[in-house]
Amino acid sequence: MTKKAKRQKLYYRLKDLENLSERERKRLENLTVDEALEQLDHGSPKLNWIYVILAVTAIFFIAWLVIENNPRQEEIPPNTIDEMTEEISSMHEEISSLEQRISDLESKMP
Predict the structure, then answer these.
(1) What's the predicted TM-score (pTM) here?
(2) What is the reported pLDDT for 34?
(3) Distance, CA of 28 to CA of 10 (rounded, Å)
(4) 42, 16 in Cβ contact below 8 A?
(5) Could you tell me if 31 and 61 lie in one domain?
(6) 32 and 85: one domain?
(7) CA distances from 23 to 29, 30, 31 (A)
(8) Which structural domain, as residue segments, surrounds residue 104?
(9) 37 Cβ contact list (under 8 Å, min separation 6)
(10) What is the tens place of the pLDDT at every residue in 79-98?
(11) What's the number of domains the chain is made of?
(12) How confident is the model at residue 46 (pLDDT cuts 50, 70, 90)?
């Protein structure tokens, strides 16, 4: 890119960037064309940090909303506990009856 083309590109970029403060404009005018174009392409470091902080805040806020709206069921309903207790006791009875049958069958063998 020729020097004239670079200057023209810089001129149009500065003309379009109305939201730049007066201080930033003067600083860009004092830089060389290459440095000014590089600075404009990379953006303001302060603005970049603001974007990063906003993004992190948004991520934590969304995570918090998901956690609050979808709570885990940490408590087991009482009727489930009673059902489980009955199942366990019936399994113990079955095991006892099977052990008794095994011992009866072993005693019948010669």
Answers:
(1) 0.35
(2) 64
(3) 9
(4) no
(5) yes
(6) no
(7) 10, 11, 13
(8) 77-110
(9) 6, 9, 10, 13
(10) 788 888 899 999 999 999 99
(11) 2
(12) confident
